[in-house]
From TrEMBL:
Organism of origin: Monilinia vaccinii-corymbosi
Swiss-Prot/TrEMBL catalytic activity: 2 [molybdopterin-synthase sulfur-carrier protein]-C-terminal-Gly-aminoethanethioate + cyclic pyranopterin phosphate + H2O = molybdopterin + 2 [molybdopterin-synthase sulfur-carrier protein]-C-terminal Gly-Gly + 2 H(+)
Domain of life: Eukaryota
Gene Ontology biological-process entries: Mo-molybdopterin cofactor biosynthetic process
Pathway given in the UniProt record: Cofactor biosynthesis; molybdopterin biosynthesis
UniProt protein name: Molybdopterin synthase catalytic subunit
Length: 220
């Protein structure tokens, strides 16, 4: 099972464990070799509100005012807003992509996302760096959820901060477009019933661009 990791000091760990236990969950944690910090592992998103600013995603890259991550857990909007918050910024733009209940006139039960994760993270980082430079942004952050994403829940969050709102709006739209076209993420539309589901390229309206479950090749 994929889990997220957060770094804690000795004092922070005890208080956080008690809060998580109070909500009915059993936290799992391990000590990092040769360090005084601890890592608490908690896969359920309810624990997110207790973790504050010490959270570190298990699969993430953060450099040059760009933050990218992949996760199988619920997406935290506040956390992503905080990644780009800055006194130098006059605007923060957030895009949240959610699972809708239909595609091509058919009812959708849920979406499932899979990815070649090492390559996807690097592609996401390249997109963010190029977008930041082109639009003179303060910061940009992008996170994509993998696995099952139920109807109405977020599958992707992109946050952008900039001195002025026009650049932030343009950059957010451009980053989303680049992500859908280039990042190594594929989705399965689960229709339910006997019809089952269909793997597709992760692009808007890409009905003919299907991804085979074996081999990962797209059909023309």
């Amino acid at each position: 099972m994929f889990v997220q990791g957060w770094l804690f000091s000795e004092g922070q760990l005890s208080a956080t464990i008690n809060k998580v236990k109070a909500e009915g969950y059993t936290p799992q944690y391990t000590r990092l070799p040769n360090r005084v910090d601890l890592v608490i592992l908690q896969s359920h998103h309810i624990a997110l509100r207790h973790l504050g600013d010490v959270k570190i995603m298990a699969k993430e890259i953060s450099e040059d005012n760009c933050y990218v991550a992949l996760t199988h857990d619920y997406l935290d909007i506040k956390f992503m807003m905080d990644q780009v918050r800055s006194p130098k910024a006059g605007a923060i733009v957030l895009f949240a992509g959610t699972t809708r209940d239909n595609f091509g006139g058919k009812p959708v039960k849920e979406l499932q996302y899979t990815s070649y994760e090492p390559r996807a993270l690097q592609t996401m980082l390249s997109i963010c760096k190029a977008t930041l430079q082109k639009h003179s942004l303060t910061s940009i952050a992008m996170i994509h959820r993998l696995g099952v994403v139920p109807i109405g829940e977020e599958s992707i969050l992109i946050t952008v901060s900039s001195p002025h709102r026009q650049a932030a709006w343009r950059a957010g739209e451009e980053a989303l477009k680049e992500c859908k076209e280039k990042v190594e993420v594929w989705k399965k539309e689960e229709f339910g019933g006997e019809e089952g589901g269909v793997w597709r390229a992760n692009r808007d309206g890409a009905i003919s661009e299907r991804v085979e479950e074996e081999g990962g090749n797209e059909e023309a």
